[in-house]
Amino acid sequence: MATVSTQPSRTEPTAVGAIDAARKALVEEVGRADVGAHLGHLVEGEPGGTVVTHLFACQRAGYVGWHWSVTLAQIPGEAPTVDEVVLIPGDEAIVAPAWVPYRDRIEPGDLSPGDLLPVSDEDPRLVPTYSFGDDPLDADAKAQVRQVAEDLGLGRVRTLSVEGLDLAAQRWYAGLAGPAAPIAQAAPHHCYSCGFLLRISGSLSAGFGVCANGDANDDGRVVSMDHGCGAHSEVRLAKKHEPLPLPEPVVDDLTTDLLEAF
Fold first, then answer.
1. Strand 126-128 and strand 81-89: pairing?
2. pLDDT, tens digit, for every residue of 84-121?
3. What are the tens digits of pLDDT across the range 16-64?
4. Cross-strand pairs, 43
5. Which residues, other chains included, contact 39 with Cβ-Cβ below 8 Å and sequence gap of 6+?
6. Distance from C-alpha of 34 to C-alpha of 68, rounded to nearest angstrom
7. What's the rounded Cα separation, in Å, for the pair 214 and 193?
8. E strands within 47-80?
9. What is the pTM of this model?
10. DSSP helix/strand/coil, 178
11. Residue 187 burial (10 A CB sphere; 0-12, 13-18, 19+)
12. How does DSSP assign 71-87, residue by residue?
């Protein structure tokens, strides 16, 4: 385990006290203007020798919180030699965010025509259809799909697992088609009583449907039963919202008398 010290001891190896040699090597590598005060050293023992890393403050613009690391290697009886000079971040350094794999950065709407997004064979959202059925809550459908897949090789290879169904339900319910959406909060009625709601089958049928109102924002999309919008089939305008009747014309230019005058 490496140890950190700011003051070399009289009994420590020569490499620990070789601060000037480490600074000289660093200045030759990066220039004097970028090198600050000595911050301490790390001692790491190796069989038959010693490796010591000296740390110096970094004065380079844009690298606040970084420091220079100069590693010296020493064989007993020999003068220490420079192993490497690197710039490393400290606890307060500004560094790039942690790498996130491309597959985990994909969000809905990122795919363009021609893009492919393969699903892993170990994806927990999917299970083999022959072992789970097309609907985990429908025993008859499960048996039927299993039989078809086994005898004829037809049907889907995989279907949603319980985890996949739960994730979909949570995502839809918390999204713009759920009850917390601003348009739903201001709606006079909920989707479950709307004539434009198409029922879906399966275990999610009690909580979700598909909007079939071409005038609604959610047309063709899955909506929760307690979602809503102003395009509900039973919406009626209050009298104060109805258009005002047109006043009587001052001159009725649609009468036959006026036409004959011309």
1. unpaired
2. 999 999 888 888 888 888 777 887 778 677 766 777 77
3. 888 999 999 999 999 999 999 999 988 876 654 588 999 999 999 888 8
4. 3, 52
5. 6, 55, 56, 57, 67
6. 9
7. 17
8. 49-58, 66-74
9. 0.47
10. coil
11. buried
12. EEEE-TTS--EEEEEEE
Backbone angles phi, psi at 44, to 5 degrees: -130, 120
- In this model, does residue 10 exceed pLDDT 50? no
Domain boundaries along the sequence of the chain: 3-89, 117-160, 170-239
Integer Cα distance of 226 and 222 in angstroms: 12
**Residue found under tokens 């003051």:** 7
Q: Write down the pLDDT at residue 8.
A: 45
The CATH fold assigned to 3-89 is Nuclear Transport Factor 2; Chain: A, (3.10.450)
Q: Can you tell me the distance from the alpha carbon of 203 to that of 135, in angstroms, rounded to the nearest whole number? A: 7
Q: What's phi and psi for 11, nearest 5 deg?
A: -95, -5
Distances (CA, A) of 198 to 8, 42, 214: 78, 69, 13
